[in-house]
Amino acid sequence: MAWIYLSIAIVFEIAFALGTNATKGFTRLWPSVFTLLAAAGGIFTLSLALKTLDVGVGYTVWTGIGSIGTVVLGALIYKEKITPVKLGSFVAIIGGVALLKITSGV
Q1: Which ranges of the chain would DSSP assign to H, the alpha helix?
Q2: What is the pLDDT of residues 31-71, one digit of tens each?
């Protein structure tokens, strides 16, 4: 169940990061409300995952996969460029997350 909570937390993390850009410095009401709710949802579901997972594993996976999702969706939504260096970084992050999952024992 911890990995399900962590997956939900990752979705909230991506929504939070993308929403932050849409707030225009928290000057737009509804994007700001969305962003704050996403942040709260992410922290709450991460805390549920961390009841079982080690904090080092849970937090690293949350931020790592959240970062990848943010970059990919940022490219799709905001037309940001994905360079070869970014692609190589994705591979490194995914490999690290996979190793953490394999060795976490949960």
Answers
A1: 2-22, 29-49, 55-78, 84-104
A2: 999 999 999 999 999 999 999 999 988 998 999 999 999 99
pLDDT-derived band at 90 (thresholds 50, 70, 90) equals: confident
Q: Which of 44, 22, 42, 40 is nearest to 31 (CA)?
A: 22
Rounded CA gap, 10 and 106, in Å?
Answer: 18
Where residue 79 falls (left for φ over 0; alpha for ψ -120 to 50; beta otherwise) is left
pLDDT for 85 beyond 80? yes
Domain locations in the chain? 2-104
60 Cβ partners below 8 Å, 6+ apart? Answer: 96, 97, 100
